[in-house]
User: Which sequence fits this backbone?
């Protein structure tokens, strides 16, 4: 006698949506690993391919720039904590509280993107990789390429996460997502935590080493 498996279910008892997210994140982690490995290869290759020295992060970004990015990292980590509150409140049926925490999570993501956008605008005005003005900051094309690739790729993930969480927030607010749809909320949380974890690695590699 065969047992019918309903939509969203899997024979091992794992929700298909959650399984799909984990598979996606494993592949995504490999992509980030490739970016980081490429950065490390160029960073510690002597001599560099274009014959110039690799920029020192403290000279390139400045102490204030690194402190600003560290604060931005703190914001993203805090948004991960608020996402935990969303999951906890939805599981307990406290939907109104979950709405508030979800909104705070969205605002945290938007703040992160805003600060990163400010940083990009500031750097692009000073690097001669992007500027024709004679007053230019020291730069290296390999550094510029890997910096923009890593931070830009991650920024795109944050933007997708903000959209994902916005859909979640609207669903909670309109009563379409509740305790019964906890798995959907959990999938959003898994993605957001992944984005936060990856940024810690990017911040360490690019800004501190």
Assistant:
């Amino acid at each position: 006698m065969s047992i019918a498996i309903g939509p969203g279910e899997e024979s091992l008892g794992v929700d298909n949506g959650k399984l799909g997210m984990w598979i996606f994140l494993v592949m995504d982690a490999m992509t980030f690993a490739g970016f980081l490995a490429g950065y490390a290869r160029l960073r510690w290759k002597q001599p560099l391919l274009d014959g110039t020295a690799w920029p020192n992060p403290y000279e390139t970004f400045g102490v204030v720039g690194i402190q600003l990015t560290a604060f931005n990292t703190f914001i993203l980590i805090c948004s991960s904590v608020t996402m935990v509150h969303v999951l906890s409140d939805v599981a307990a049926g406290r939907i109104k509280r979950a709405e508030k925490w979800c909104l705070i999570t969205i605002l945290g993501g938007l703040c992160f993107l805003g600060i990163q956008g400010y940083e990009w605008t500031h750097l692009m005005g000073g690097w001669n990789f992007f500027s024709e003005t004679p007053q230019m900051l020291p730069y290296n094309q390999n550094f510029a390429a890997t910096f923009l690739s890593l931070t830009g790729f991650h920024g795109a993930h944050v933007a997708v996460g903000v959209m994902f969480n916005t859909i979640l927030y609207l669903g909670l607010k309109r009563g379409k997502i509740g305790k019964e749809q906890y798995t959907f909320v959990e999938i959003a949380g898994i993605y957001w935590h992944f984005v936060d974890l990856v940024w810690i690695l990017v911040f360490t590699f690019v800004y501190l080493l």
Remarks:
- The CA atoms of residues 154 and 199 lie 7 Å apart.
